[in-house]
């Protein structure tokens, strides 16, 4: 019997986060991700430890993730090499210029492709997708770059790979997700296409642009084969080719037996120092764009 004033409790419902299956999924997911973190971090921590350790401990195989016999001799040797700093400067210049060109071209191309009313839009999308799966080949590309007079210039590095089709499609999806009413209102106010892009679309696209900047910058910073292919002057090479030459020299010496174990190990220490110095700038930049990273990828990958 129910009387007035009696409080009737509503039946408790279990949310999706309270289910047993979801709790098991969270535990498994946490374990798997921790395993991925360990597998990813261990090689880098080992490289850092080797770069800061004495050669005797490295030769004895006693260095894992903690430096043994703290020693900065290898850092002094690498940082005293003028060629290293010349190649390092080249990498910074190539990365900045290439990233700027790539962002401008990718943004303009993606914005055009996001307009369903554009005539020939399907052809432009098809051209981009075709290059994603097929290329002219190494020799035709080399002949083209050489015939255009770009060999031994910065343009041989920054122009051939200026647009990533994956990044283009992500930005296209992001632009398609923006409300069309904003652009229509701006057009009514008198803005043309360029004004809408510069004053309306780009200010709303900071997250996706920051993400694309990170993608392109990391790609160009780590790239070495393009410069190795099109440049034959040491003072024009990026630092990644400097590192590649160190590794190749140590490997050749070890295989030919021209150097003893101590010399090869010393070369390995120099490689570790170069890897650390090459990686530090990207690690320093990433925290400043990390807050845009997940948001930018999700906004560009999900339309709605």
**Number of E-type strands:** 0
Strand percentage lies at under 5%
Work out the helix count: 14
Stretches where pLDDT is under 50 for at least 5 consecutive residues are 300-304
How many distinct domains?
A: 2
How far the N terminus sits from the C terminus, by CA atoms, comes to 51 Å
The best one-word shape is globular
CATH overall fold name of the largest domain? MetI-like fold
Q: Indicate the mean pLDDT.
A: 82
Features:
MetI-like fold; globular; mainly alpha; 304 residues
Describe the structure.
With 304 residues, the protein is mostly helical. The chain folds into 2 domains: 18-59; 76-301, MetI-like (MetI-like fold), CATH 1.10.3720. It contains 14 helices and no strands. α3 packs across α14 (261-301), α4 packs across α8 (165-177) and α4 (82-113) crosses α11. It is globular, with a radius of gyration of 27 Å. 22% of the residues are buried. The model is unreliable at 300-304 (pLDDT under 50).
Characterize this entry briefly.
By secondary structure, this protein is mostly helical.
Could you give the topology of this structure?
Elements: H1 20-51, H2 55-59, H3 73-79, H4 82-113, H5 121-133, H6 138-147, H7 155-158, H8 165-177, H9 180-188, H10 193-201, H11 206-222, H12 225-230, H13 239-256, H14 261-301
Helix pairs in contact: 1-14, 3-14, 4-8, 4-11, 4-13, 8-14, 9-10, 11-14, 13-14
């Amino acid at each position: 019997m129910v009387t007035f004033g009696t409080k009737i409790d509503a039946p408790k419902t279990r949310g999706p986060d309270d289910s047993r299956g979801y709790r098991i999924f969270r535990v498994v997911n946490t374990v798997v991700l921790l395993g991925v973190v360990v597998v990813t971090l261990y090689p880098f921590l080992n490289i850092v430890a080797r770069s800061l350790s004495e050669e005797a401990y490295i030769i004895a195989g006693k260095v894992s993730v903690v430096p043994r016999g703290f020693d900065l001799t290898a850092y002094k040797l690498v940082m005293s090499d003028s060629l290293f700093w010349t190649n390092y400067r080249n990498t910074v210049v190539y990365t900045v210029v290439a990233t700027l060109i790539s962002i401008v071209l990718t943004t303009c191309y993606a914005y055009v492709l996001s307009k369903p009313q554009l005539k020939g839009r399907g052809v432009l999308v098809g051209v981009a997708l075709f290059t994603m799966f097929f290329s002219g080949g190494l020799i035709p590309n080399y002949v083209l770059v050489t015939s255009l007079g770009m060999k031994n210039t910065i343009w041989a590095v920054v122009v051939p790979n200026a647009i990533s089709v994956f990044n283009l499609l992500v930005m296209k999806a992001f632009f398609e997700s923006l409300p069309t009413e904003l652009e229509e209102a701006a057009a009514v106010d008198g803005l043309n296409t360029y004004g809408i892009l510069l004053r309306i679309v780009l200010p709303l696209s900071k997250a996706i642009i920051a993400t694309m900047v990170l993608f392109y910058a990391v790609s160009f910073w780590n790239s070495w084969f393009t410069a190795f292919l099109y440049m034959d002057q040491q003072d024009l090479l990026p630092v990644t080719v400097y590192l590649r030459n160190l590794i190749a020299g140590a490997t050749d010496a070890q295989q030919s037996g021209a150097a003893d174990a101590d010399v090869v190990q010393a070369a390995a220490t120099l490689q570790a120092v170069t890897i650390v110095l090459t990686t530090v700038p990207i690690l320093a930049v990433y925290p400043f764009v990390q807050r845009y990273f997940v948001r930018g990828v999700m906004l560009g990958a999900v339309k709605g």
